[in-house]
Structure to design on (358 residues):
């Protein structure tokens, strides 16, 4: 039976699937599972997992400068570069090595079931928002529904079991309970909402995106080997995402002092502080679990519980660089809904923290 090049690409070999599984398991074990297992013992023993990447032991970040930008970019890059490489490899491998029908069947529906699947699939990943972004792009290009891909993206940070354990040992288990309860609402609630609001409206977007991908893929040989296609997609994704990512990280590193003020007991539970720090946390970029030492340092300097809870909800799930990385994979209305939803959950978290006497 004759097959077209599209059909051959749509049915990757068993070897390709095996390579994807091996990459995912071995890569996550090396980059995430093993280091975090060891780090949990450090958190339990010392009730800390390191200094705040935002400002170290100081009460305020350094003044805006080229040095501040480079220092933060280097510290951040050292923390995430391996996970970023893995994210790019997995994001391109999803498109080249997995059958698209698998992704459509698991994540292509617009009901709650595909959102739950996306959220649960994210739990082993434990990636920061930027490192998960290439995988989200790959899922969307394989026609995963927007809410399902969004649940996968948010779940990497908000349902990260390692971060929840660190938070319990470092900040206290009441903070873990707050984060987990509202994280579940954020991941599955926003995913469901985005799928619901996008029913019938994203079909044209998805079809145009798939057509563009097919056009790009057909500009070479008629039947490119899946591994050659994987390499090609990896290079294309890296060239498109990494430069803008580096620029934004440098800018945010320089602007730390503008986003986060001098931290002391003067930062109370007033709405202005809660909203201001929630927005700053949403824009800023941190490595996985970076919010734990940041909030620990701020609480030790006298900051109130309300702003601290808001930061726990906005620092991890999204950032300005990660939003830029997925901008082509979602409609503006979907990203706007995500931003508003994350900020709303931050306000709820702050209210609960104050009301429960954290």
């Amino acid at each position: 039976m004759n097959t077209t090049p599209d059909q051959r690409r749509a049915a990757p070999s068993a070897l390709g699937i095996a390579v994807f599984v091996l990459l995912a398991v071995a890569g996550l074990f090396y980059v995430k599972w093993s280091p975090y297992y060891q780090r949990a013992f450090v958190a339990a023993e010392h009730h800390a997992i390191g200094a705040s990447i935002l400002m170290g032991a100081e009460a305020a970040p350094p003044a805006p400068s080229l040095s501040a930008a480079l220092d933060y970019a280097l510290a951040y890059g050292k923390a995430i570069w391996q996970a970023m490489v893995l994210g790019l490899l997995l994001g391109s491998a999803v498109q080249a090595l997995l059958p698209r029908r698998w992704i459509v069947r698991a994540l292509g529906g617009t009901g709650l079931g595909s959102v739950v699947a996306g959220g649960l699939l994210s739990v082993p990943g434990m990636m920061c928002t930027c490192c998960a972004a290439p995988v989200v792009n790959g899922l969307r290009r394989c026609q995963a529904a927007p809410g399902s891909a969004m649940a996968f993206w948010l779940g990497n940070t908000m349902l990260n079991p390692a971060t929840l354990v660190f938070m319990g040992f470092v900040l206290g288990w009441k903070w873990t309970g707050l984060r987990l309860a509202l994280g579940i609402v954020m991941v599955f609630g926003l995913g469901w909402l985005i799928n619901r609001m996008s029913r019938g409206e994203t079909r044209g977007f998805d079809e145009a995106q798939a057509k563009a991908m097919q056009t790009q893929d057909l500009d070479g040989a008629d039947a490119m080997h899946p591994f050659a296609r994987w390499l090609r997609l990896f290079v294309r994704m890296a060239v498109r995402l990494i430069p803008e990512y580096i620029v934004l990280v440098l800018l945010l590193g320089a602007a730390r002092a503008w986003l986060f003020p001098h931290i002391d007991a003067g930062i109370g539970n007033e709405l202005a502080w809660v909203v201001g720090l929630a927005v700053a946390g949403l824009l800023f970029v941190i490595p996985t679990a970076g919010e734990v030492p940041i909030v620990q340092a701020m609480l030790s300097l006298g900051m109130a519980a309300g702003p601290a809870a808001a930061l726990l909800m906005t620092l991890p799930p999204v950032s300005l660089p990660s939003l830029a990385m997925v901008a082509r994979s979602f409609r503006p209305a979907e990203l706007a809904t995500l931003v508003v939803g994350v900020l709303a959950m931050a306000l709820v978290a702050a209210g609960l923290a104050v009301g429960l006497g954290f």
